[in-house]
Amino acid sequence: MSQPFNQSFTFKLDKPHLQECFEQSASPVQIKDYFKACVFAVATITLFFIEAEHYYLPFFLFCLFVVELLSIKYRQTWWVWRQLMGKSANGTVEVSIHDEGVSTKSKHVDSDFVWSDVNAIEETDKGILIKHKNGTNYLSKSHMEQDSVEYIIQQSLASQIKGNKKS
After folding, report:
1. Mind listing the pLDDT tens digit for each residue in 47-81?
2. Which of 164, 121, 127 lies closest to 18, judged by CA?
3. Helix (H) or strand (E) holding 24
4. Phi-psi region of 60 (alpha: psi -120 to 50; beta: other; left: phi over 0)
């Protein structure tokens, strides 16, 4: 019988870490991301032609159109800024990887998930995305030992084999 696996590491939720999280986990901008902006643009143009006296609503919709376009263009900056404004910003997080799953503990949030809840594990250039039934977690390789990375990938392969046996 092999030794039980248990490794822990800590990191700080600072700006470079949050930028890395976004870069490694965000999906690329797609055409559907512009849908709200298009709706605001069409509504603005329509109301400019219909409204004869008061142009408050069309100007308001035009501002929403511009804000929506800016939120798409600067979505990483906006996301990182929102995270840095939160109460967990610059806090320390302790991550423990063990035989049962992964546990994260910080001043404000304690969460864990078991390996059986994991749907997919995706290795990126700088880390690992773990998709489970409660969401997605990103673990940066810069904070982990190589043993931990290999163990997580091994868990991914083990869950794929179990999934194929059920089919």
Report:
1. 888 876 788 888 999 999 999 999 999 999 999 99
2. 127
3. helix 15-25
4. alpha
How far, in Å, CA of 99 to CA of 94, rounded? 17
Query: How far is residue 35 CA from its own chain's centroid?
Result: 21
Q: Which amino acid is at 14?
A: D
Instruction: Work out whether the CA dihedral 96, 97, 99, 105 comes out positive or negative.
Output: positive
User: For the chain, how many helices (H) and strands (E)?
Assistant: 5, 7
**Angstrom distance (rounded) from CA 2 to CA 57:** 68
Q: Which two tokens stand for residue 154?
A: 């091994």
DSSP run (H or E) holding 138: strand 135-140
Rounded to the nearest 10 degrees, how much is the dihedral formed by the CA atoms of 82, 26, 120, 84? Answer: -20
- In sequence order, what are the residues at sequence separation of 6 or more whose Cβ sits closer than 8 angstroms to the Cβ of residue 18? 79, 80, 83, 84
CB 120 within 8 A of CB 135: no
d(CA 25, CA 120): 13
The dihedral built from the CA positions of residue 85, 88, 89 and 95, taken in this order, carries a sign that is negative
Q: Is the pTM of this model over 0.85?
A: no
